């Protein structure tokens, strides 16, 4: 029968960018399929609208509808102009309506309605008819859905994994799910929708649905559990005086691990220098550390902990009070050598008791002294450091700390160590091979030279890969030379007037000594001297020259006729470089110098904090005491001696004793006490480890499990798991007081992973892998005592001595 149009398109005028509708109606049962032509060409269908279609009864089917709205809209469905009734067979996805098992009564005309509750607007899609026909035989196939297979959901939420499969007869579905051992288990469940009603941590993992006998038809889901961020230790407002150190807690938990950022007065806080993030209590607490507080540090500090779609925040106010004093002015700096910078400043008003110089990279407040200059030893040559000076002024009751000098001044260690050797009668070879090896990222060198008794300098620019240079020198003249380096092509402007020169008159004649001292190491250090030892192969009959480079770049050398020497006449608390050269006795000519070693002399000043002692309270708690007047002290402690003291954990106390908790009993603990009036540091005290680390872990199978043993006494925490991918926090644990323990209730078909650590520490231990239990006869597990009992019973029966027990 021919179709008759009851409404046809009419001519019209539309405005660009505005919606416009053309109408076309054809009454038909079932509804007719309508297509449109423009200029004789078929218009493409908008696949965001529902499409006409037909489905087979008893199988899944999906209608799609995507209405672009911002913000995103919620989508509902109409059938024959009415809202869909409640039915568990309907699953409403973001842009689809899924029928898990379609029926004949589901046939009709469908529209989707997009509702934007923020804008109070609705948009209705085009109509699409759906016919439902009887099933026919067909091969299985996955129904394509616009759902997520990488699912991230909060803990305790509901997650549905959709695996609709078409086909007749209806195919059977098999689900593989993660189990507690980390492997995948086959689930006795054949539904096409797996409903995780309350998501837990042990439900996290990879899920797979597949069609029986059609292994190539499958769908994989990756489920990740998240937990909202919670700040467990928020920052607390504080009121401090200048020059003190402030710590703000902001410890947060969540899944994934949250990231913490800090703001001050609403602006992002740039970390570095005096502002640093530190971990304490073996990573269980995170702090913002503000060192050497100034008046400008006062304000509101906010921490934001964010993870996935969750965020939490905390805030605290910092007040800086107390009496004020003028900060030093006129701060200037000069390089003295590769590792030394001189800082000078003008004396402020008032009765100055001491100064300290704050250095960046790393932030370090320096030692108090009364001079208006200080030679600073920097660890990285050719690296800019910032310097600020603070003054401590004598007040009526106590010393008053000033703010830092502003702005910071920047200098870098400059003046590369060089070796000068004669090369013919009219040239010298200048070499800096060793320094270049230790500083590999130099971009450019500048070799400066001038005639002796002259100030007219000449520069030779060399690329960063050059290691030596031949400089012409007239036979009847000596030159002064020095080498500069820069890690960037843009050089830091500096005043080089104090940087020393080296004369070519000190050049060595080419010699035949090729032996190089090895393994140079310092065997003892004191305030004004240190001892050094080395070894040298093929050095029989040789003498040695030991040279010490001072912070100002000059050398102090002495001779030795064995493989050790003591260098004296040094300055306390000063960093030196020592190197050793082999030479023939009676000749100035020597071979190459050894690699330089760095040594820092100790302090020889009076100690305010004396007789620092310690006593363990338990395995992880120690009480330290010292001989000093009762006052406020800071006790700093760490198991990493090379870590800057500013990064050590610390606690404040009033008195001369303190209790340190949560130390690692298997490692040495280093302790230093700081007084505030005056600002003095004690020598570092070493508290030796109380429990040795468990070593030589071994295992043997027992009848009920496995016996783990180790060398080293003391209490232990034994953690074990049969899934190495699980977090250590989820591993079961047992306490052991001896040197062995039996672990039971294990799956014999899986390997077992064991860690043995001391209590209270950060679980530092190697993992012992115990393989799968081998197949062995059960008789091998009979105890020796049981076997002996059977032998005795057999003997009594044979000898007629067995008397049956009567009731």
Characterise this structure.
- By secondary structure, this protein is an all-beta fold.
- The protein has 8 domains: 39-136, Immunoglobulin-like (Sandwich); 142-226, Sandwich (Immunoglobulin-like); 234-321, Immunoglobulins (Immunoglobulin-like, Sandwich); 329-412, Immunoglobulin-like (Sandwich), CATH 2.60.40.10; 419-506, Immunoglobulin-like, CATH 2.60.40; 518-600, Immunoglobulins (Immunoglobulin-like, Sandwich), CATH 2.60.40.10; 610-687, Sandwich (Immunoglobulin-like); 695-781, Immunoglobulins (Immunoglobulin-like).
- A hairpin with a 6-residue loop joins β39 and β40 (458-463).
Ranges with pLDDT <50 over ≥5 residues?
Answer: 777-784
Radius of gyration: 40 Å
Beginning-to-end CA distance, first to last residue: 102 Å
**CATH homologous superfamily descriptor of the largest domain:** Immunoglobulins
* Topology-level CATH name of the largest domain: Immunoglobulin-like
Share in β-strands: over 45%
Oligomer: single chain
CATH class label of the largest domain = Mainly Beta
